[in-house]
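Memo to structure team: turn this sequence into structure tokens by end of day. - J.P.
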Amino acid sequence: MDSIAELRSRLRAFAQERDWGRFHSPKNLAMALSGEAGELIAELQWLDDASVADGLEQGALKERLADEAADVLLYLVQFTEAAGIDLVDAAHAKIDRNESRYPVHLAHGTATKQTELHRPHQD
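Reply from structure team:
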């Protein structure tokens, strides 16, 4: 069993034991996911890159970020389960699309948005 499947199984059991399944609609889980992503962002808000690097080295920030990142992952796994989405398949499909949207010869070393990459005109 892969680690996503293990998480899905544990989360399903966790929610069933507490009778929370009725609250776990795709909409509710997406909203909770957004809230947790906001909490992750709040840990980094107003910190410059050097402060983040220092905080990660010292450990306290890393622990808080790990906790918030775990919340994001757990809600994402629950959301995709409720929505009938295979998370790993969806991620592979997205990478496939991004590989064609951002060809190496145009995107290497640049953060340019896909719509701004210069492509030869096709007739």
